[in-house]
Write a structure and sequence with these properties.
23 strands; four-stranded antiparallel β-sheet; alpha+beta
Length: 373
């Protein structure tokens, strides 16, 4: 889409020309640095001295409150509320013009600059056609976020977010997923379990966070995560924290679409990640594993069965997903609780009555994450 480099505004009364230049997060006004954008807000140039201003945003990236530190105390600089489609409701006026979705308000037009196009918050419409208008025929080609700005952000007109968490433990699963990208992405989950995100600051995302944004942004592959406090999948197979449950490919003239399925136990995954000191890493692995399996099946046009079935793409998907937090180990016991040894080929001996699975924490302690009898 390119980058905006310059904005020139000419007025007749009074007669004046103002030039703003945009260079890698630094904004110039008539050739002089006006401010530098930071992860938390901006550093404003006050005659050669920089004053740091901080922004508080909501789950959609809307800047609600701006402040600085004056004489050791927080000082409010600006406060804004918004109508659903972005029209500003000023509470306390100030200099910050990066407001709705953290986009710059062009006061001369009364529109927000999203880089590739301008958005009019008065009518809730773009001033140019949506780039996917032909694929979204149910919606006006000028509409913002499927007319649902509380749920969606629409930064570039591409497709909506498609990771869906279901089940009785979906909140716990969401919390684990959020922990995996803390400080990088702010996740949201609607009443249907659909996951969205906004970037937390302007820094470069890690590879893991980048992969999660790819999963969420790609609406040709829908990742369905079923979160329950169980030890067996819906088909009755034992699993430890997470299970690749296959996918279904639908062929179409515009390309193949995929519904991917993953089953998770957030409690087990949380114990594993915490013990290894990598919060949320294992939930992120499960989500990206389902997506990677979807990519493989989308390319081949062949649906994949679950991980324990012939022809499954599980092994390849597992290797392409984000890393797990660490290894898992199993112990087996007889009826008296005596530990038994596996037979060659990882085969269970006779007399096994119970088992547990554990991980080694950073101090070498065995932390049990799941057990069965």
């Amino acid at each position: 889409m390119g980058n905006k480099l310059r904005r020139t505004v000419t007025t007749s009364s009074p007669s004046a020309t103002t030039t703003s230049d945009y260079i890698s997060g630094i904004q110039y006004l008539n050739g002089t640095i006006a401010f530098i954008q930071t992860q938390e807000g901006i550093a404003r140039n006050l005659s050669g001295t920089y004053s740091y201003e901080y922004n508080l945003t909501d789950h959609l990236g809307n800047v609600r409150y701006s402040f600085d530190i004056n004489a050791g105390a927080v000082r409010k600089l600006q406060q804004d509320n918004y109508y659903a489609f972005g029209l500003q409701k000023v509470v306390t006026s100030g200099q910050n013009k990066y407001l709705y979705n953290s986009k710059e308000l062009q006061e001369e037009l009364g529109q927000y600059d999203y880089g590739a196009r301008f958005y009019d918050p008065v009518v809730g419409r773009w001033n140019v056609l949506d780039p996917l208008a032909e694929q979204m025929r149910r919606w006006s080609p000028y509409s913002y976020g499927f007319n649902n700005p509380i749920r969606f952000v629409d930064p570039d007109g591409v497709a909506p977010f498609d990771v869906i968490i279901k089940g009785s433990e979906r909140q716990a699963a969401f919390d684990e997923l959020q922990a995996s990208v803390k400080g990088q992405l702010i996740l949201s989950m609607d009443a249907n379990g659909k996951i969205g995100y906004t970037q937390d600051g302007a820094g470069k995302l890690s590879k893991d966070a980048q992969q999660l944004t790819s999963v969420i942004n790609d609406n040709s592959i829908v990742v369905n995560v079923f979160a329950e406090n169980t030890t067996n999948t819906a088909s009755g197979n034992l699993y430890i924290g997470g299970a690749f449950s296959g996918n279904t490919v639908t062929k179409g003239t515009a390309g193949n679409t995929v519904e991917a399925y993953q089953e998770v136990n957030p409690s087990v995954l949380g114990k594993m990640s915490t013990a290894h000191g990598k919060a949320g890493a294992d939930m992120l692995h499960e989500v990206t594993e389902a997506y990677q399996g979807g990519l493989i099946s989308q390319k081949s046009g062949i649906s994949s069965p679950a991980s324990n079935q012939p022809g499954s793409v599980y092994t390849r998907a597992h290797g392409r997903a984000t890393n797990q937090s660490g290894g898992i180990f199993e112990r087996i016991y007889d009826a008296l609780g005596k530990e038994l040894q596996m037979l060659p080929g990882n085969i269970y001996p006779q007399g096994v009555k119970s088992a547990d699975w554990y991980v080694n924490d950073k101090k070498g302690n065995k932390v049990v994450i799941q057990s069965i009898k």
